[in-house]
């Protein structure tokens, strides 16, 4: 709260959402997508709904729609109009999957000695455990509807000024990923190979002195 006293409410929500303590308290820590759980052990599960419900009910919009003067909106029968349903909560819960703690580090004092006791650093999102499917919004659409799709981006964005390339190593084996090792040796898998005369090749090759980051 002190760090965000001159910021905005969105910054506060972002900070508490990535807080390991909040994730423990409202039980979305290590929440996993249905697809991840089913592929791992064949069980049918649903994402934890606790934080999705509380962030709506307590932290933001509340239970009923409001007019500009703060009075509840009413339907044709004079009843208050509810903001969301259980179906909405189930959809929002999928947005809070994949949040995990960083490993403990030496300069944090903990009463417990364990690799998952880091309550200081903001959490990270594990892409493998995150639900990748669209989440509905409250107005009949989907979250992120107005963001451009990858297919709608300008052609050859990877060659535009400002494009960033990171050097991840020379070994083609996916040692730090979950891909099968045969990915590196399977000749049927298509790979992009740059022509040695192309401008991008020369920029990345840099006369054999490979840089950790190259920005065009």
Automatic annotation (TrEMBL):
It comes from the Eukaryota. It comes from Ditylum brightwellii. InterPro entries: DUF1800 (IPR014917). This is Uncharacterized protein. Pfam families: DUF1800. PANTHER family: BLL7424 PROTEIN, DUF1501 DOMAIN-CONTAINING PROTEIN.
């Amino acid at each position: 709260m002190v760090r965000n006293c001159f910021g905005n409410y969105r910054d506060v929500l972002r900070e508490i959402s990535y807080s390991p303590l909040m994730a423990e308290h409202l039980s979305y820590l290590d929440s996993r997508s249905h697809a991840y759980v089913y592929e791992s052990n064949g069980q049918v599960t649903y994402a934890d709904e606790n934080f999705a419900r509380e962030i709506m009910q307590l932290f933001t919009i509340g239970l009923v729609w409001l007019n500009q003067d703060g009075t509840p909106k009413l339907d044709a029968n004079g009843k208050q109009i509810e903001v969301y349903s259980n179906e909405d909560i189930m959809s929002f819960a999928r947005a809070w999957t994949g949040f995990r703690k960083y490993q403990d580090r030496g300069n944090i004092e903990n009463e417990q000695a364990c690799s998952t006791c880091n309550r200081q650093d903001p959490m990270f999102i594990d892409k493998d455990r995150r639900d990748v499917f669209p989440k509905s919004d409250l107005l009949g659409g989907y979250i992120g509807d107005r963001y451009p799709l990858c297919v709608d981006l300008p052609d050859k964005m990877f060659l535009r000024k400002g494009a960033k390339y990171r050097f991840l190593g020379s070994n083609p084996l996916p040692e730090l990923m979950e891909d099968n090792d045969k990915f590196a040796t399977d000749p049927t898998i298509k790979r992009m190979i740059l022509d040695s005369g192309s401008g991008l090749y020369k920029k990345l090759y840099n006369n054999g002195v490979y840089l950790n980051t190259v920005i065009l």
